[in-house]
Specification:
- It is a single chain.
- This protein has helices at 2-61, 65-80, 84-106, 109-112, 115-150, 154-160, 173-176.
- The chain is mainly alpha-helical.
Length: 184
């Protein structure tokens, strides 16, 4: 009889241990999803700001169709991305296209002095900072989640319930290299 109680006690402890691990994994999944939502909100704000920026620049540099096309294509690619990795790639493509747009704007002094353009540029700069903070938060949450599902004994519970590794929101190679500065 005592052996039965010991076995039932051990089974109850194992069950409570499994429930604790499962609940911890669910918490990490929710934190990761919340972090992704934060990135998504910031990216949506940038996405909505871009048409105003393009229209302002078009008023001064309407013949720069290739730059406008790149920005438009990049915005379109964002809507078609399915995974975090695809979304990151699309967002990085948009960042590159926006750099080209601002390079075009440099050639138009009257545009650079336009208050509407300056306000849009300032808003975009602020948004880029917010996006970077959101990316860091998301990557931290993804890291914590990935550690949680890969460490023993949680890996057993994670595999039982189909938890898989989260992708990081990473920069493209061009963003990792130092920019070239030339004063010629």
């Amino acid at each position: 009889m005592i052996a039965l109680y010991v076995i039932l006690g051990i089974a109850a402890l194992v069950l409570l241990w499994g429930i604790g691990i499962y609940n911890g994994l669910i918490k990490k999944v929710n934190l990761k999803n919340e972090a992704w939502s934060g990135i998504d909100v910031q990216l949506k704000r940038r996405f909505d700001l871009i048409p105003n920026l393009i229209e302002t620049v078009k008023g001064y540099a309407g013949h720069e169709k290739e730059v406008f096309l790149k920005v438009t294509e990049a915005r379109s690619a964002i809507g078609q991305s399915k995974s975090v990795a695809e979304r990151a790639e699309s967002e990085n493509m948009l960042s590159g296209a926006l750099k080209s747009l601002f390079a075009v704007a440099e050639g138009y002094p009257e545009l650079k002095a336009n208050t509407n353009f300056l306000q849009l540029q300032e808003q975009l700069s602020s948004l880029e900072n917010d996006i970077q903070m959101s990316r860091r938060y998301y990557n931290g949450a993804a890291r914590d989640y990935n550690i949680a599902i890969a460490t023993f004994p949680a890996v057993i519970v994670a595999n039982m319930f189909g938890h898989s590794k989260a992708d990081y929101f990473e920069a493209v190679e061009e963003e990792r290299s130092a920019p070239k500065v030339s004063f010629q």
